[in-house]
Amino acid sequence: MLLGLYNYWIVVLLMMIGFYIVIAHGNLIKKLVGLTIFQTSVFIFYISMGNVDSGSAPILAEGVARYSNPLPHVLILTAIVVGIATTALGLALVVRIKESYGSIEEDEIQIQDQLTEDKTSC
Amino acid sequence: MIAIAIVRTKDLLAVVMLTGIYGLLSASFFVVLDAVDVAFTEASVGAGISGLLMLAAITMTGRAEAPKRHKPLLALLVVFITGGMLIYGTLDMPYFGSFEAPVHQHVAPRYINDSMQEVGVPNIVTSVLASYRAFDTLGEVAVIFTAGIGVLSLLSLPRRRRSSELDESSEDSTEKQMHEQHMVLRIISKILIPFILLFALYVQFHGDFGPGGGFQAGVIFAAAIILYAMLFGLDKARRVFNQSLIQLIAAIGLLLYASVGVVSLFNGGNFLDYNVLADDPLAGQHLGILLIELGVGCTVAAVMIIIFFNFAGRREAQQSSPELNATEQNSPELINSTEQKGGE
């Protein structure tokens, strides 16, 4: 009955896609998108853990015997909004990097840094 | 599938569009998993605001991604090893949807069984968020507030530049262009915006009984304002919500939240213990939840508006014209997503 674990596999798949984007791509905005995907995979992980067979949404009503676990919902609900706020902060940083370096590709920025370092050391 | 497409696509604009679709999809996924509150938030944040902010950033940074220079093989290897280990780790996890899983054994039964007597709010998510774990939520609101301050300090412009340069000809011409090009959009959004605002208020104050609450309401409220700012020009929107006013609102929201805690301290309870706010503990809980949800809503909405205004203001200051077209083409998409939000 290994198939009962499929939700975790979806999570792992998404997480690895996000991870791959973060480490393999040089573009900073793409990296942020990758982080967002990574983040969503964690959200799905929590929510799928809180799910119960034949459960209902955790709003008390008559005639409902089983509710899914409200605790992960609370944690993720706030995490989503905090996530967008931090992503916005990251994007703001990217914009400033673009303004001062003229590029948002990681390796180009590194080359520029290298050049300025050489200049100062000489 | 969409995630894979995001990996492959080089055009960042398409990536952002795909991210929006991805957000909406994961929102519907959350509905399937009985997490309506979360789905609500994800639909408004993932499909609406986040795509919008990324668009705003892309207009400033350019949309093409440089071709890769190093081999992705090493990265793939690392990813596969990590993924394999994670999947190996899941083999001991409880099955999907099983009732006996350890997650459901500790605090959750108390929330489900007793929250009606202790808090008196049908939506368990709200009662956990705003009452049992209120301190946690206070911290999260503070994080959002701090992120808003961070964006402000990174992107805000000196005041005199804004007033002297931006009200002149270039601004007017783009605005006229938009007025001619997007008549339908403007009229429809004029009709829609009051309803979006009303819906946000409904979500805000009905969060005790149905899905909703301060976080979602704040985001939806901000979405309405941002829609207005996009279609009628930033300056007009700034006239309604000027910078210092929304900064004040953001701070007041957080202060309101924290001061509810302090008041409950003075009334002889613990920090954020609402039972002492009124004679009847349940009435106290209701009052406390209402107030702190209001605080959360204020802060979230104000911070989102601050973030957007600063991104857009920055872009206007740069005024790089070829990229400007990219945003204009996208406004229908954004309105669609807002409509979907309204429909849910």
UniProtKB/TrEMBL annotation, chain A:
GO cellular component: plasma membrane
Stretches that traverse the bilayer: 6-25, 32-52, 72-95
A Pfam family the protein falls into: Oxidored_q2
Membrane-related topology note: Multi-pass membrane protein
Cell compartments where the protein resides: Cell membrane
Family named by the database record: Belongs to the CPA3 antiporters (TC 2.A.63) subunit C family.
Organism phylogeny: Bacteria, Pseudomonadati, Pseudomonadota, Gammaproteobacteria, Alteromonadales
Native species: Shewanella atlantica
Superkingdom: Bacteria
Protein known as: Na+/H+ antiporter subunit C
UniProt entry keywords in alphabetical sequence: Cell membrane, Membrane, Transmembrane, Transmembrane helix
Coiled coil start-end: none
InterPro entries hit by this protein: CPA3_antiporter_subunitC, NUOK/Mnh_C1-like
